[in-house]
Specification:
Layout (H helix, E strand, L loop, with lengths): L3 E6 L2 H17 L4 E6 L1 H5 L3 E5 H4 L4 H6 L1 H18 L3 E5 L2 H13 L4 E4 L4 H4 L3 H8 L2 E4 L4 H6 L5 E3 L4 H4 L6 H7 L8 E5 L4 H21 L4 E6 L5 H8 L6 E4 L2 H7 L2 E5 L2 H8 L4 E5 L3 H10 L7 H6 L6 E3 L5 H13 L1 H16 L6 H12 L1
Parallel strand pairs: 1-2, 1-4, 2-3, 4-5, 5-6, 6-7, 8-9, 8-11, 9-10, 11-12, 12-13
Length: about 375
């Protein structure tokens, strides 16, 4: 009889790693039955989807409240699926607001729980860690400092390394990229990375574009390009770019843009860590609704929110959060990153230390082996 695995990944980054994980699991056992929540990557790897990440990617406390009924319906439907199909293991990928609650309920129904990419409770709720130990059987964590943190609460925790280490590959050479996108290799390139959710695009892209325009008014030779995430339609992106005809849209080559940009503006999230690994100078931007921000400020217990800064244990990259995420504050910093050689070099040198803290290649393989052993 085939073994059953239920996986829940509620965001684009979770789907990306989830797709690799599903593929690795099927390579180890082609007869597995894998189902749950994911995106196109997990589906194409052979997983049966009940809900797509596009439906689940909601950010901010107030935004979650607005979508509470839908989330509640999804939660109880998935619980019903769990009771009916009785998976041998439930694999939860990141997405803590939903997944921690689901883990608790699933455990009461006798499910074995493995958590991949741990909830960042060291940042926003250390009191949750002892409770997590009661309903999570094992965790595969992607930052080395998480092992001692979770272990002290009795959680069986293993450092698998960060999956992005092995997927940081460009599609094209620098010359190919610039030629294909009709860009000039002799001119500075500013990359804009507004995120993978519609909410992020709407709240952050206008400020990014205005910042780029401010710099371009002083330095007409700079080129600007926006990275389009697979989860964002070209039509949605074009709504914001109608008045910026000179700005390029880059699809399917985000790592090329990260590596070949002279500097960048990046939405807080996994992309800030990816950018650090390419050693490209950048700033971090983040903004949610005012009420969500005020609640978050009360909850978050660490000084910085950018993952590169969290991993480094100090602020390497400047963060522009909420009311600071405005062109008049961001433009001077980006300008320094573009044109102040010494300032650029110092940041690049600091960013090189990040790679060492993320472990070696093979995170997905190690994670799949843990899951198979738990089966």
């Amino acid at each position: 009889m085939s073994k059953k695995i239920m996986i829940i990944a509620g965001e684009a980054s979770g789907d990306l790693y989830g797709g690799q994980l599903v593929k690795a699991l099927f390579e180890k056992d082609p007869n597995l039955e894998i189902f749950g929540v994911g995106g196109d990557n997990m589906k194409s790897a052979g997983m049966e989807l009940f809900y797509h990440v596009d439906q689940m990617a909601i950010i901010g406390f107030i935004e979650v409240v607005k979508h509470f009924r839908f989330i509640k319906n999804v939660f109880y439907h998935l619980l019903a699926v769990l009771k009916k199909r009785k998976p041998d293991i439930v694999v939860l990928i990141d997405y803590p607001g939903f997944n921690l609650r689901f883990a608790k309920k699933a455990k009461k129904h006798g499910a074995k729980i493995f958590y991949f990419i741990a909830p960042q409770v060291w940042a926003w709720g250390q009191g949750r860690a002892p409770k997590m130990a009661k309903y999570i059987d094992k965790m595969g964590v992607i930052f080395d400092f998480e092992v001692p943190f979770f272990s002290k609460f009795g959680l069986d925790t293993e450092f698998v390394g960060h999956p992005l280490v092995e997927k940081l590959k460009t599609v094209k050479t620098r010359q190919e990229f610039f030629n294909d996108e009709n860009l000039d290799m002799e001119k500075p390139l500013l990359g804009l990375f507004p995120g993978s959710r519609k909410q992020e695009i709407e709240k952050l892209l206008p400020a990014m574009l205005q910042t780029a325009q401010t710099i371009k008014s002083k330095h007409p030779n700079i080129q600007v390009a926006v990275s389009k995430a697979p989860t964002i339609s070209l039509q949605h992106l074009n709504q914001f770019l109608n008045t910026f005809p000179d700005i390029k849209i880059i699809s399917g080559e985000s790592y090329d843009l990260m590596k070949y940009s002279s500097a960048a503006i990046v939405t807080s999230g996994t992309a800030t860590l990816e950018m650090a690994c390419w050693h490209t100078p950048y700033i971090i931007i983040y903004r949610v609704s005012t009420l969500s921000y005020l609640i978050g400020k009360k909850v978050i217990k660490i000084k910085n929110i950018g993952l590169a800064n969290v991993v480094a244990g100090k602020e390497l990259v400047k963060e522009f959060i909420q009311h600071d995420a405005v062109p008049e504050k961001m433009a001077p910093e980006v300008e320094k990153l573009l044109f102040d050689a010494k300032y650029r070099e110092d940041l690049v040198s600091s960013l090189k230390t990040i790679n060492q803290k993320l472990g070696s290649a093979g995170a997905i393989k190690r994670t799949s082996e843990i899951i198979i052993n738990m089966l």
